[in-house]
Amino acid sequence: MSPTRQLAAAAIAGAFALGLAACGSTSSISGGSGIAVAKGVQTPRTEPQSGGRRGGTLTVLNHTDFEQLDPGLAYYNIDYEVVYATQRPLFSYKPNTFSEPSPDMASEPAQISGGGRTITVHIRKGVHFSPPVNREVTSADVAYAIERGTNGNVGNPYFPSYFSSLVGAKQEIAEEKGGPFPGITTPNRETIVFHLTEPKAPIVLAALVLPLSAPVPEEYAKRYDAMKPTEYGNHQVATGPYMLKNDSAGKVLGSGYVPGKSATLVRNPNWNPKTDFRPAYLNQIDIELGGDTTVIGRQVLEGSDMVQNEAPAQPTVRLAYEKFRSQLELSPGAGDHYVAVDNKQGPFAKVDVRKAFWAALDRVAMNKARGGELVTNVMTHFIYPEIPGFEQAGGLKGPRVDYNDYPQGNAAVAAKYMRLAGYPSGKYTGGKALQIVGSNESPSSEDAEIVNQTLKNLGFATKLTLVESSVMYSKYCGTPAEAIDVCPNVGWVADFGDPQAVLDVAFNGKNIVSTGNNNWGQVNDPEINKAMEAAELIVGTQARANAWAQIDRKLVARAVAIPFDWDKQPSIESKDVAGVGDLWNTGSWDYSFTSLK
Amino acid sequence: MTRYIVRRVLWGILLLILVTALMFVLFRILPTGDPARLRAGRNASPKAIAAIRHDLGLDKSLPAQFWIYMKDVFLHFNLGYSYYSNAPVRGLIAERLGATLSLMLGGAAIWLAVGLPVGVLSALRRGSRLDRVSMGTALVFVSAPEYWLGLIALYLFAADIGQVKIFPGAGSYVGLTSDPWKWFTSLLLPWLVLAAGSAAVYARLMRGSLTETMGEDYIRTARAKGLGERRVVLRHGVRSAINPILTILALDIATLLGGAILVEVVFDIHGIGLLAYTAIRHSDLLVVQGTVLLGALFVVVANIVVDIAYAYLDPRVRYS
Amino acid sequence: MSTVDDSPLLRVEDLRVEFPTEDGVVKAVDGITYEVGRGRTLGVVGESGSGKTVTAMTILGLTRAQGGRITGRILFEGRDLLSLDEGELRKVRGNEIAMIFQDPSTALHPLYKVGAQIVEAVRAHRDLSKAAARKRTIELLGLVGIPDPGNRVDDYPHEFSGGMRQRAMIAMALANEPKLLIADEPTTALDVTVQAQILALLERLRGELGMAVMIVTHDLGVVAEMADEIAVMYAGRIVEAAATETLLNSPEHPYTWGLLRSIPKLDGPRVERLEPIPGSPPSLIDPPSGCHFHPRCEYAQPDHARIDPELLPLPDDPAHKVACLLEPKVRRKLWEESV
Fold first, then answer.
1. Residue B155 and residue B36 share a domain
2. How far away is chain A from the Cα of B149, in angstroms, using its nearest Cα?
């Protein structure tokens, strides 16, 4: 689960919505979630999955550089574009789904046994590492890959969240040595077994779609993992259809990846198409980093054999919608944005004050600042589109309570809840000034201003501070001790298509930590906590969806935070590219499925 | 004269040391990224970060760190290691210098070749239509923001996205040694954009300087000697008028060698400017320090060179 | 002082020079006529604003660029200089007619060596090699009395003293053996002692080279020694012209009287007060009607404001010309009374 990348959001900026909000003639095209996407624009669900021709080189123009390309560290949607083309986790999503992973390195679906405490996975035969390792992948390689998540030199961000129920994992996390530990065993070359201390198999299984489970050859990687920090990423080998270009010793840095400049993916000569569901049409992918985003947008739209694989600048989206509509893709379920309020102390500790704020906020205006109807939907509860449980939790309109029924805000309803909270005038009369910390990048800064104004209208005195988004997360909103009352620019992108990945870290009381806290509102409702604990153990997609949808409704009933935006991320391609976007990765173009026409 | 040069050089070195020290202190005081944290990666554990901090020598006292850094820079010319690019700073700078040099020298050649003659003609025909048109145009280009000008140039003339497809588009720069023709054509548009503003500045400078010069008595003497007007203007007028311009030129070049950031970003030319920009965005402090130091070095050197050159340009100037 | 050719070297005929300015048309030179004989020295005397400098500069065509209207004739050896185009005029400048200016420290180019500047003057009109031109330059520097010319030829102007600079300028002017040297306030910017040296130099050179000299100055004392003839200018017109002796001893124009009276005399009584001419020089945009001097003349009559005086020779001395409306007999009486 990652906080919505500020850069991805920042691209959709400014007043362009004025022109577009009006002309968003929406006809519901994307199946399944009922989310409206503008007419004539393709989505990952509607794109043809069988592509154009074999061969050719795709040029990718990205303004933003990668964060981490090491599969054990990669965590953001732009990193995933490269990682999922070169690495094969145990399970992966096909491009047009976010809820049914397909076996990837696994040869068949996993088996859960032992009352939910044991997961057995069979490894596919005939998959080989790329040069210079070359040999066949075994279960030991998968074990090592997951174990290195506890290595202090690797610094995997999600191991504790999903894998701490493995036997011996907690101690391993504390020691930071990188295993091995009893929770993972490999009875033979083709089998890997996970042993859990609690019946949390569903979540562990779901987390196996993350890149951590992509095999890593220990004898080759050991020496790199001993360095501080690990250098394996700069020398990585691949199991997927493509690999980062490297030299004969396996060094990727300098050829396959030049920070700030370029990345080059070439075919993995040891990849066997018969073992993979990926078609891999392209021969090579040249990623060029840097440059001005508006220029990139035009170059891609007007050029050939190119894509931009990050959120384009807002003028580009407008241009694409108006003149190059067939080259624009919108992906619902690309994450959300909401306002976190301090549930623990201060004025927002009262549920009625929270409800009043929810009623007062003009969510349509907040979204207009982000680009309007084309790229947003008004958010009405917490599980977002494409995640199982979305419909059960209320779908587009959400739970029908009065504070939720007015997307443009309703002062009367707000006043009603303020009175219920003990302010007879309908406005706040307490003494405390609210601390609001937002991001200084557009359009988040505009949203922060709207929130500020809304609270002022409710009678609050406010102190608004806008800082760089990483500082906002790390120093202020992610540190409970700072006791920030309102964080208007937080958001979430789920790690995998399970509602727990959306709700647990953000709203479970037990996940509040002193630094790097992602439960920004310090939500700690015992009833909700208990429900989450129970729902964690439920097996079966449908059953889980139902259980977590009920929790979502409870979160709405308790108004733990104020939602406003469900993102529909835009992506653009040249006219002769048959792009296939990954629904599960904000619609980013998937190099293993995309082809040239 | 030699004593003068030696003194200036020593002062220059002292100045560089001061700049480096100031930067070092500033970066430790200002709330920017923590180098150990950034090197370790965003999600590293506190233990890992501590280990890296120790490796980087950041757990030593501040004066100790300062001393080590200064020694490294000034005795070993070691500018440190870039966490982001995974390479020594010195190497990164050396790699990128060529692009910035190419950009700058070409741009300078064009703006001088255009700006100076326009300035001379305008000075000679003050008030004429030529003068008013050229000075008006110059004013437009001086005021136009470079970034905007670059974007406009691309939207008008770039081969991939322009209206009139003449020049290669953004991102097409390659080094001189890899493909000389492509190197040249990819730099044409950036040169023009870089030169546009400066040509305007230099035209105005030359016009002012020459106008003043042509009113001097020795011009009258030159004419009274029976010299041709061309000789009077060039050898007597421009010869004097160009001195202050050369001073400014040296400083301009020095500043640009620190990286023409805006042009490099718009056209995606991987020079020092873009290096600095990327480093700032990623809080890659040592790279930023390296580029600032480089820029300071150029300015200091340019100042000294200009002062020395002035002794040759203007015989009335004497140094003791 | 016998000359083979009696015709004047330079004859300026009814020269008028007007400049348009924002405030109006400046009539810098309002119809003047004079001559310079071969090998003779003419002094042109007047206050600042009298038009004397404009006169001198116009001879060489140095006022053409200012957009003025120039009428009349400037006959040099029979050729009307005003009818020559730039190219032809350039051949005359620095060659047959040379000019030196008031402030030698600004009149020389500060960035070139003195020798180089003189070499330039030489090679502008003669086809000499650099070495030959350099030799000639050293010769010239010696001629004008600069010590150690072989070394000083490579000095810059700022390495020369004021007096030496003026000598260098003179050397530059003489480079091509001009027939006429025009000197515009040649000593004004120099110390008194140096002034005398420079004037002596000019006198010597004139004799040695047989060239004509026209000295323009405000200082009667300067021309008293050197000039053969003196022309007095006032407000763009010549009011009196005569041989030097004659002018100093029996001047006929009230302005000249005023000039002479305002000069301190070494042999005069100490108590005697200097008498400046009352009033100030008139504006050349709107000069007084009729006789330009009448507002300041103590002997002016009413009709002097209406009639333009002509420069006419005196009956008993054709070389002595006066532009005054008073009767000659009246004037003589006034002068004798005041002396």
1. no
2. 13
